[in-house]
Amino acid sequence: MAEKLAPEKRHKFVHNGQTVFEWDQTLEEVNLYIKLPPNIHPKQFYCKIQPKHVEVGIKGNPPYLNHHLTCPAKTDDSFWTLEDDIMHITLQKRDKGQTWSSPILGEGQLDPYSTDLEQKRLMLERFQQENPGFDFSQAQFTGNCPDPRTFMGGIRTG
């Protein structure tokens, strides 16, 4: 049932007509997807993930991305992989349930409507995790959606 509440599509950050990265999020993580340029050996790519910063590039060149994150990440649980010409960066949210409007501070921010949809989906994902016997995939909110991180005393950990 939880897969019914998974992100349906990735958000795109486009600059000057070129997709810089795509991304999605769950209650616990934010995923960035960067299409790699052709004809470059995978060992030449690098990614540095810090609690509030990410840097991505090709060794010996200026970084492709060198930006602050919108929200802090847990570096011990964050990682990156190369899959089918895509760099996939998984950022573990420091604050589970926090709705990120973009992975990169000031770049590709979601509009208020899309941010609201993300918050609603994350709230339903939280309900699903806390009540695994129920199916919340068709549930809807009327009015403002509560913050999934803080609603009713916050997310239970452990």
TrEMBL record:
<dbReference type="InterPro" id="IPR008978">
    <property type="entry name" value="HSP20-like_chaperone"/>
</dbReference>
<dbReference type="GO" id="GO:0051082">
    <property type="term" value="F:unfolded protein binding"/>
</dbReference>
<dbReference type="InterPro" id="IPR007052">
    <property type="entry name" value="CS_dom"/>
</dbReference>
<feature type="domain" description="CS">
    <location>
        <begin position="16"/>
        <end position="104"/>
    </location>
</feature>
<dbReference type="GO" id="GO:0005737">
    <property type="term" value="C:cytoplasm"/>
</dbReference>
<dbReference type="GO" id="GO:0006950">
    <property type="term" value="P:response to stress"/>
</dbReference>
<dbReference type="InterPro" id="IPR037898">
    <property type="entry name" value="NudC_fam"/>
</dbReference>
<dbReference type="GO" id="GO:0006457">
    <property type="term" value="P:protein folding"/>
</dbReference>
<protein>
    <recommendedName>
        <fullName>CS domain-containing protein</fullName>
    </recommendedName>
</protein>
<dbReference type="Pfam" id="PF04969">
    <property type="entry name" value="CS"/>
</dbReference>
